[in-house]
Amino acid sequence: MTSRNLFLLPGDGIGSEAMAEVRKIIDYMNAEMAAGFTTDEGLVGGSAYDAHGQAISDADMEKAMAADAVLFGAVGGPKWDAVPYEVRPEAGLLRLRKDLELFANLRPAICYPALSDASSLKRELVEGLDILIVRELTGGVYFGSPKEIIDLGNGQKRGIDTQVYDTYEIERIAGVAFELARTRNNRVCSMEKRNVMKSGVLWNQVVTATHKEKYSDVALDHMLADAGGMQLVRAPKQFDVIVTDNLFGDMLSDVAAMLTGSLGMLPSASLGAPDPKTGRRKAMYEPVHGSAPDIAGKGIANPIAMIASFAMCLRYSFNMVKEADTLEKAIANVLDQGIRTGDIMAEGARQVGTVEMGDAILAEFKALSA
Ligand code: NAD
Q1: What is the DSSP string of 26-91?
Q2: pLDDT confidence of residue 262
Q3: Residues of the chain predicted below pLDDT 70
Q4: What is the 3-state secondary structure (H, E, C) of 121-155?
Q5: Helix (H, G, I), strand (E, B), or coil: what is residue 107?
Q6: DSSP single-letter state for residue 104
Q7: By the 8 A CB rule, do 122 and 255 touch?
Q8: What pLDDT is stored for residue 1 in this prediction?
Q9: Mutate to test the pocket of ligand 1, among 291, 300, 306 (most ligand atoms within 8 A of CB)
Q10: Which residue in 142, 161, 237, 359 is the catalytic one?
Q11: Residue 97, SS3?
Q12: From the centroid of its chain, how far is CA 87?
């Protein structure tokens, strides 16, 4: 039987409540579908700090490195606001991204029909929306050097960040976008600011060359990132896959997120390079939301973002496309049935807590898989 090794890092706040609902699905898939998942669990964020004085221990980092995929909940909370900067909860997340070399961040923006009235845009603009933003995650202006504030000595200071991209970084993220487009509607829109930035000129050239060389079967468009932001809120359904750099991707993926309603609905995946031996990419799957300290421990968090992150894991780490489709359909059906957590509550719907939402999705998943 295939063995699929998952490392679970529930983290802090609602992270563990949401992860518990994914565990139920894993257990079901092992028992009834011979999925062969093995799981191990570690600590990250504030909970790791409390236990080890670090945001993630070396032992847990090793397990993350060895796993086929990492499922991550959320980190942070007021309890750890005053801990030293190097061991703050987010440091655990950043170390995972860095050490696993997760250079491609995938953020789908899917608008479930049942929630199309929760969007800030008109229903007809977002109903049926299904776009994927592929953001470069380990380069660009967040990491380039020099990165400093210097004292100019005349009462003025200068803040410097450096936007820098090398050819290989653009080639590999473009490759991920084109490959994913082939599994969807076969269209990629690349966004940069080639009109004012040299890194944008290079980005445009490399994406164009990569396309010509290896992916000419995929339709490619280019858009300036500011125009892209405008188009995302004007007519989002025109896009299939958007590929962009770290900074623009950070902003554009948050804009796209809001097209779909609540933070509690949004999954993400971060992928690294394929292993030369197995072909499998290092990968981490996590909801976009944080640890939501305001509702933690109350049993009311929406587990859908976490469950949908697991669906992405099935799709991208294990090529279990049918199971991923079924799990996503189960989520859509439960929403169609009018079952809602508080954050997505609508008139006439039935409000449930975290566990009940997880149970409803599992029941639907079972029914659809039968
Ligand atoms: P947040 O995402 O935790 O919460 C923002 C708001 O959305 C809150 O009102 C919260 O109750 C609500 N919300 C979020 N997820 C929800 C869910 N699944 N169901 C229902 N409601 C949900 O962001 P924040 O309040 O800015 O940050 C709280 C903590 O989380 C901070 O310590 C922050 O640093 C951390 N954080 C962590 C991550 C991460 O782990 N990836 C991401 C963002 C923020």
Answers
A1: HHHHHHHH---EEEEE---THHHHHHHSSSS-HHHHHHHHHSSEEEEEE---GGGTTS-GGGSHHH
A2: 77
A3: 1
A4: CCHHHHCCCEEEEEEECCCHHHCEEEEEEEECCCC
A5: strand
A6: E
A7: no
A8: 57
A9: 291
A10: 142
A11: helix
A12: 23
Distance of CA 345 to the CA centre of its chain: 23
Q: Is 305 in the pocket of ligand 1 (CB under 6 A)?
A: yes
pLDDT tens, residue by residue, 316-369: 999 999 999 999 999 999 999 999 999 999 889 999 999 999 999 999 999 999
The reply to whether ligand 1 has any atom less than 6 angstroms from the CB of 77 is yes
Instruction: Report the DSSP pairing between strands 4-11 and 69-74.
Output: parallel
The full set of domains in the chain, from first to last, is 1-104+267-370 (3.40.718.10), 130-258 (3.40.718.10)
Distance 292 CA to ligand 1 centre (A): 4
Residue 254 bears catalytic tag: yes
Nearest to 24 by CA among 360, 368, 370, 369: 360
pLDDT of residue 43: 98
In the numeric block, which tokens belong to residue 339? Answer: 């079952």
Protein residue with least CA distance to atom 38, ligand 1: 290
Q: Which atom of ligand 1 is found nearest the CA of 286?
A: 41
CA atoms of 339 and 11, how far apart (whole Å): 27
Reduce the secondary structure of 194-242 to three states and give it as a string.
CCCCHHHHHHHHHHHHHHHHHCCCCEEEEEEHHHHHHHHHHCHHHCCEE
Quickly tell me which residue has 């929760």 as its tokens: 118
Among residues 129, 343, 364, the alpha carbon closest in space to that of 235 is found at 129
